[in-house]
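I am still getting used to backbone structure tokens and would like to learn alongside you. Label the sequence line and the structure token line clearly, so we can match residues to local backbone shapes. Would you write everything just below, so we can both look at the same thing?
***
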Amino acid sequence: MPRNDISAFVAEAAADVPERQALVESGGRILTWSGLEDEVARIATGLGLRGIRAGQRVMIVVGNRIEFVTAYLGVLRAQVVAVPVNPRSAPGEVARMMADSGTRLVVVDETALDLVRAALVDLERIGGVAAPTVVVTGAEPGEGEVAFAELRADDVRPVPPLPDPEKLAALLYTSGTSGRPRAAMLSHRALLANIEQVAAVEPPMMHGDDVVLGVLPLFHVYGLNAVLGGVLRHRARLLLVEQFDPQAVLDLIDDEACSVVPIAPPVFAHWLPDQHLKERLGPVRLVLSGSAPLEPAVVEEFTAITGIPVHQGYGLTEASPVVTSTLCSRRNQPGSVGAALPGIELRLVDETYHVIEGEDPGEIEVRGANLFSGYWPLGVDGPDADGWYGTGDVGFLDASGDLFLVDRVKELVIVSGFNVYPSEVEDVIREVEGVTEVAVIGAPDAETGESVVAYVVAPGTERAAVDAAVREHASSRLARFKQPTRVEVVDALPLTVTGKVQKGRLRGIERRRVDGLLP
């Protein structure tokens, strides 16, 4: 079949290497390429038999297990639209996504079944939206629900090849640049383009004989297309891990001889204290870090201990997701997230959208075939007429083409008309002894418009002492308008599943404080 659809990778592999292992779960279940192709074909047919037509939406609320992969690829094969969702979402969030996307069918595992049932109750309250069919894996279906096995057709019917790769493949809910969750429309073209752009990187991130760790959540674009998509393209072997336990994952890497380990930055903090880390990561040839910035000192310490190179990248949901990689850099530079992948262009623009020359910071704009088609349902706020998309991130490009991230446009704090990049303030506060984590945001201020507020984690240290130390250090390192006017010492920062600080939640706290709902 023409490769207009990611599931074509599976059909090709099944024809060439049918008995080679494609997927293995940490619990021991295995699926070969021929077995994966059989499952995908049966589910694609089964969706049609259940009345799901091309272009309709199927939500997938499943952890990192074989059923996620077969459901996702079956949906794409059937030319239906996949809506992957975090199994740890709140019921109200899932209900809103169901209503917004017009979901016709939901595939859910036992860990999220109560969540989906509660979401359906909320959906009734929203009103005006038909309840989707619920397909259950890993548990007995309840009244009106369907077992996953019933979604698999007994007899496979060939699905006509996708006629147009511009057709929508997936809706991935993201904050985008607006701060309000909405669904990025990723076409088959965009997903396939990024898989090929990553595959064109030299030296390659994956080989056909690699075993790739699949601990990053598949509902997230990084796990979905950068990890799973790469595995399908290279016919590598994917080790699916549902729960991240630092020690258990190290054991799995050793036991399954994982050679490529894509992880999020918080993982390094869990692993670095291990005295036997080098031995336990013996099979690993490459560590890939993405989804959030990684401190250069962490990279240096990890590589010094293990001898394993760590390559970072920059990406976003709207770019399917990978934009840059340090594998594309001419030389290794601390703090760099690498140069643009083949087929991707970068430029920086100022507040008036004029292109910036030299190494001054500006908003990062991206152009390439991997870009999304705008936000659901009307395709708004996508790439402009010339194909450029403003990411909302601030960075600078050096003479070699390497990108260095500075901050988010929407996270800029403007104090008396002066721009404050939170990342600059955070870097200074991290220098304070005892501080392990920090997040800086802007809070409304009657006199200056906004003021700088620092949320700080410093285990085992008195709050008053932390407050005083942060203020004293900031006063010696930062201009007065950049210094925190308030230091909030907390036990932990709210994080996303990929390790990003949820600054929106912190800004919500500040809004409630302004409204008099908090002291």
Notes: The chain has 15 helices and 25 strands.
